[in-house]
Input
Amino acid sequence: MQKKKHIALLGSTGSIGTQTLEVIREHKDLFAVEVLTAGTNAELLIQQALEFEPNAVVIADETKYETVKQALKDTFIKVFTGEKSIEDVVKFDEIDIVLTALVGFAGLRPTLSAIKAKKAIALSNKETLVVAGDIITSLAAENNVPILPVDSEHSAIFQCLQGEYQNRIKKILLTASGGTFRGKKKEELRNISVEQALKNPNWSMGKKVTIDSATLMNKGLEVIEAKWLFGVEAKNIIPLIHPESIVHSMVEFEDGSVKAQMSMPDMKLPILYALSYPYRLPMKQKELNLFEVGSLNFFKPDTDTFPCLSLAFSAIEKGGNMPCIMNAANEIVVEYFLNSKIEFLDIPLIIEKAMQTSSFIANPSIEDYFQTDKEVKQRLRLDYSHH
Output
């Protein structure tokens, strides 16, 4: 069917990274791991390296370098350290596809580096497109590099578009589980604990994504990502709360026909599709039983209680570096909330304030994006260091 694909997996110890390795483990004849990178989790990286025998591993945290190097000294695996190394290893000749499962802004530089090296991108790092969608998409086009979405919603849209390339998209209907606090009102969200916020009803995800999902910021980021991936104006992207998480998104065409992609909520499906595209491969998972599901519900998002979604729409309408400002602020406030420094309801207020007070650049260069991210984060860290 297809020759073996060699994969660089950036962020191999996180939620998407570990699920990607489960997918590869099921299809060892079709996928080989060329590179694994991790931030600080040396123990798990060592374990993964011994099992999957990549050509190289990177541990970004330089204090963990010796640990990893010692553990792998009897293998042929090369060990690198530092964030810069991640940008270098994605250029290896053997690599066919780079799956970016890094969390946050950290995914931007390695993705740029991989695109310039003409590697196919399986994108799980939505912040890359949120921050620099214009630059990333034009660079990918220039280098003739496909960006294959790994987010379940964007994978769904991508799947709905197969065979439809010449047909214009009228609307994208982007579904959301509604997160941990679906149906709650502002009053009920006072004094929410971190533990409560981390209980997502339908998906198993990393901490940052789970909080973003609870504030609906995740959906805001996905609206911006969808705009860049599929060239659809934000006003034609309609978020819907869909508690069952069975329909992963829908596309409406000019004739009024709507296509949906449905499956059980399992991240391994979009991961596998991005890696095996254009083929579909068998996967061990619970099959969708519509008799069991019974009914599918869709509601308008409550943006009074969850203003982050509206902030994302206003950021993308404003354009320039505004989505970058919003994203930087969000990364910091989520970190602060997870460390119990601020309340759940403070999250959108602080982001909005950052959007109002940071310097706006209408036509940012890539350097402007790096600068904006740094400035916004430094300023917020200063503002809240006394808390």
Notes: The chain has a mean pLDDT of 96. The longest strand covers residues 31-38. The chain is about 45% helix and 15% strand. The two ends are 58 Å apart (CA to CA).
